[in-house]
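User: Please predict the structure of the protein below. I'd like the answer in C-alpha cell form so I can feed it into my own downstream comparison script.

Assistant: Understood. Taking the following sequence of 469 residues as input:
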Amino acid sequence: MKSISRRALLGSPFLFAIHSSAKTIEVKVKEIRASYEDFKYRTPIKFGGNIVDRVTMLNVNTIIEDGLGKSQRGSSAMSMGNVWSFPSKVLNYDETLSAMRRLASDIERITNESQVTGHPVDINVALEDHYLKAADKIVLKEPIPKLCTLVVASPFDAAIHDAYGRLLNRSTYQTYGPDCMRKDLSHYIGPEFKGEYLSKYVLPKPKPVMPLYHLVGAVDPILESDITKKIGDGLPETLPEWIRYNGLRNIKIKLNGEDSKWDIDRVLRVESCCLAAMPTINRKDWVYSLDFNEKCPSVGYLMEVLNTVKSRSPEAHRRIQYIEQPTKRDLKADRANVMHEAAKLKPVVIDESLTEKESLMLAREMGYSGAALKACKGQSQALLMAAVAQKYKMFLCVQDLTCPGSSLIHSAGLAAHIPGVAAIEANARQYVPIANKGWEKKYPGMFQIKDGFVKTAELSGKGLSNDLA
C-alpha cells in the first residue's frame, strides 16, 4: 500500500472537509432582536383563580454565523404568559408584564454581546445563568421567578435553534446527534447520560398526525344554557359545537381545586355532554386530562375527586388520561404532599414546578409519574427534560401557553418529535384566533382541524418549520 506523506494529508480535500464541517456545526449569534404584538381574547380564560383576556406576543428574529462566515436567519415567538409564569399578589398584570419586557431587553442585550460559540443548546446553557442574574437585578416588590425568566428567554433560544437548522439545510430536530453536537448529554444533565445524545430521545421526523386536546376552561360554557352573552363571531361557543366543529377526541378540563363538589360536577357535566355529542360524529371513545392549576390543597383532595368521579361514573374515570400538577409549584416547601397514592390511579405530571433536572428528580421522588414539557420554557430545556423523563420512564405530555401562529408551530413541533407524547394542545384557536390569521393557509392541517387530529406531517420543513417574518 502506498504511504501518504503528512504534507499531502494536510493539503488533502478530505481533511479540509473535516475542518470545514467542524467550523460549520459551531455557531455564534451575530444579531438578535425582539418585538411585540398585543391581542385581545375573543373570550376570557380562567386558570389558577385568574381571568385572562389578552396576550402579548414576544417575537424574536436572529442571525447566526458559523466559523466559515456563513450566516442564516431564524425566528420564533412566544406568549408572554405573565399571569401563569409570574403569579403575584402584590404586582398587577401590567407590572408583571412590564417586568418581563424589561427582562426581554436585557436578554436581547446579553445575547447580542455574547461571544459564546457552539450548538444552540450550548449557547442556551452558557447564557441561562446570565439571564437569571439579569432578572434578579430588576428591582420589584417581589423577585421574578425562574419560570418567568425561562418564558421570556424561550423565543430567543428557539430562534437560534430555528436558524441553526436552516443553516444546515435540515429540520432542527435532525441536528441533535454527534454530527452536530460536540458534547454528549452527560455535559448537560449528568453522568448517567455518558455517550448519549439528544438524537436518542428525539424523533428526526415528526409523527404525521396527533390528536388535538381541546380546553374546557373554568368559565367556558358547556351547554347553551350556560351562555350569559353570546360572542356571535361564527365560531363555536359550547362544547357540543366544538366537538362537531373540530371532530374532538381529547378534552382538557380546567378545575377549581378549592371546591371538590364543583370539580366533581364539572367533570361529570363534561362527561354527560360528551355522551350526547360524541355519537353525532360517530366517536365511540375519547379521553380527558384534568388540570387543577396547583389549587388542590393536598393529595387527599385529589383522591376525593378521583374516587367520587369513579363511583358516580366509572367510564368518566376510565377516560382520564392524566392529571396536571394538582398542588402548589414550590415542591420543596411542602415535601410531605406526595403523589404516590394518586399516581397509582393515573399519571400525575409536574408542570409549573419543572424548571430544571433537580426539580424533575424531586417531583419523581415525591410520587409524580410524568412531566409536562412546554416550548415556553425553551427548546433546549424542553429537549433535555424530555431525555431525563424518558430515561426514567416517566409519562410525557406537551402543553402550550395558549400559543398562536409561530409559537403553536414550535409547541406542536416538540410534541410531534418527542416519543411518547400522545397529543397536542392548541388553545389559541379557541381564545385568540385573530393571532392565527394568515397561518391557516400556510399550515391548513395545523390550524384547520376537522377530524380531531393535527396534521403534524406539515412540520417537516427546515429549522423549526416557522415561516420567517
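That's the full C-alpha cell string. The chain has two domains: 27-170, 198-459.
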